[in-house]
From TrEMBL:
Keyword Transferase: yes
Record-level Gene Ontology MF annotations: acyltransferase activity, transferring groups other than amino-acyl groups
Domain of life: Bacteria
One Pfam family from the record: Acetyltransf_7
SUPFAM superfamilies to which the protein is assigned, alphabetical: Acyl-CoA N-acyltransferases (Nat)
PROSITE patterns: GNAT
Keywords per UniProt: Transferase
Protein name: GNAT family N-acetyltransferase
The N-acetyltransferase domain, residue ranges: 1-127
Length: 127
């Protein structure tokens, strides 16, 4: 999982001058709970994973990583659609200047807070 996370983030982190495998390992360890994880498999091969923390009245998407070769095939959109179908607000953070920001905005997430390195997003179901 760490290798996949690093592969998915390397380009963005390198562009920002923040690529550090040890920091990536520590962040994954701090936010990872096996019960919240789902593997993404395509053609018998794991191409990504995501973790969703159930919170009181909302979901927190901590990780959604796809191998670069699996990006742009609708897999991430499928994950977001499945989460939205639960009918709960969804929050997440995306690395500034990452292509993930465009992805989340296209899927109806709005920026609610900008931090030094991340942008916090939120999606609310239509009442």
């Amino acid at each position: 999982m760490l290798a996949l996370r690093i592969e998915a983030l390397r380009e963005s982190l390198t562009r920002l001058g923040r690529f550090n495998p040890e920091v990536a390992r520590a962040r994954l360890r701090a936010q990872f709970h096996p019960a919240w994880m789902q593997h993404l498999v395509l053609g018998g091969e794991r191409v990504g994973y995501f973790t969703v923390e159930p919170r009181e009245g909302e979901l927190r998407l901590h990780h959604l990583y796809l191998a670069p070769a699996a990006q742009g095939q609708g897999i991430g959109a499928w994950v977001i659609d499945k989460l939205k179908a639960r009918g709960l607000p969804i929050s997440l953070a995306a690395l500034r200047e990452s292509r993930a920001n465009d992805f989340y905005r296209r899927h109806g997430f709005r920026a609610v807070e900008e931090q030094d390195f991340d942008i916090e997003y939120r999606w609310e179901p239509i009442a």
